[in-house]
Amino acid sequence: MSLRHNFELSYILAKIGFVLRNEGTWLGIFWYLLAPFLTFLLLFAIFFDRLGHQIPNYAVYLFLGIILFNFFQKITGESIAIIRSNSGIIKSMNFSRESLVGAVVLKTLFSHFFEVLLLCLFLIYFKISLIGLIFYPLILLFFLIFSFGISLVLSSLSIYFVDLGNVWEFASKLIWFGTPVFYSIGGQTTLIYLNLFNPMYYFITITREVLIYNTLPELWMMGVALFYSLFYLLIGLFMFNKLKIKFAELI
Amino acid sequence: MIISENLNKTFKVGFKKNQGALARILNLFMGKESKKTLEVLKSVSFELKKGDVLGIIGCNGCGKSTLLRILAGIYSFDKGNLKINGKIVPIIGLGVGMESRLKMRDNVFVIGLLLGMSFKEIKRKFTSIVEFAGLRDFIETPLYQFSDGMRQRLAFSIAIHSNPDILLLDEVFAVGDKDFREKSIKKINELVKNGVSVILVSHDLESIRKHCNKVIWINNGVVFRQGKPKKVLKEYLK
Lengths: 251, 238
Known about the structure:
The structure holds two protein chains of two kinds.
Chain A: H1 3-22, H2 28-47, H3 58-79, H4 82-85, H5 87-92, H6 98-125, H7 136-157, H8 164-178, H9 189-195, H10 199-211, H11 219-243, H12 247-250
Helix pairs in contact in A: 1-6, 2-3, 2-6, 3-6, 3-7, 3-10, 6-7, 7-11, 10-11
Chain B: E1 2-12, H1 21-30, E2 37-48, E3 53-57, H2 64-71, E4 79-84, E5 88-92, H3 104-114, H4 119-133, H5 148-160, E6 166-170, H6 178-193, E7 197-201, H7 205-211, E8 214-219, E9 222-227, H8 229-236
Parallel strand pairs in B: 3-7, 3-8, 5-6, 6-7
Antiparallel strand pairs in B: 1-2, 1-4, 8-9
């Protein structure tokens, strides 16, 4: 089936997912924003004095880290259960299973848009130039490809390992603490070495440099980020394609 | 057109579906993974030509639905050859995938896309789908207010509007009330005249006798008998 059809299918699935979730609440969007914003307030209150004062524009630094991490966590966390929760249609129709994961990505992208609007308010309040936002869609595209790839891996494996959701919940918490979201990594050698293998580190750092500090990120960092996104996309597509024919039998 | 040669499907019995990561890995090293298998289809060969209406009969659990799912590309098969030309639309379990809290309009788009239609195509055929199902007055009604019959009519209507070359019907040859049943049989006959093939799995031998031009009887994973409906059904009833 064509890419265009997959996109259309993902789109409609994302749309009904969104409609169903926000049915009857006028505050739908507000709820999406509340979680990252409260996390931000809490962390800001705790860490502003201790970690914050060496980091320029700590508030924006923190908020940007939170929404990027939130994007990744939401997509992967929801994708891991997506095959099982759609067993009915998988068992009776032959549509492209990738679209289910694609729908999760699109839905999260939509709610991410509102987080970015909030980010703009932050930037304006702290008198930071909005010029960096021009490059944001490009960064987000590769970040999205990366998240999509990881989700393909997780969703296909979750059929074989029923408790993968629990494992991933724990793992993503580890990544959250390991990634410099609310602190800066400078000077901590072990952590720097560890983070060289952490794709999240690259995406978050690049985005901060472009959006907050309006500088061009180092070329090798962009190269590695590009590599990770394409690498995980290929791995994801490969695994998903290998395993998807067994989905209907195993759920 | 379908040509199936010695199709074989073996399920692992006792494959523990719901195993955690640790249990799965431990079992792998300790060799505890179940080795029992169940050969649902041993060797199934048949041919379906353009415009054929093929009936499949057999006892419960003899592999009819498994065969349909393999043809639809939902299950994989283990051995044999399968050649398929054209778009297959399976109608297995009517109304699956419909969201009861959504309006009928949205549901038509969801199911249509799941069955391989494009946005444009659904938009173009929307009126025709709704008219055929006889649900013109309920376009903006949420599905939870629909009766089972109405849902089935809608699902059936979407499926036959999705440009099938081959229709797979699992016990759903005729749904809804008498009027709708006659209407859908008429529509299927019209499709068949235009070159669409139909595979019909049913325990309702009367409709098999009436509508099929070919019947295969599956027993113990092989095609036990095949041929004209009259002949096969006569033996089947013995």
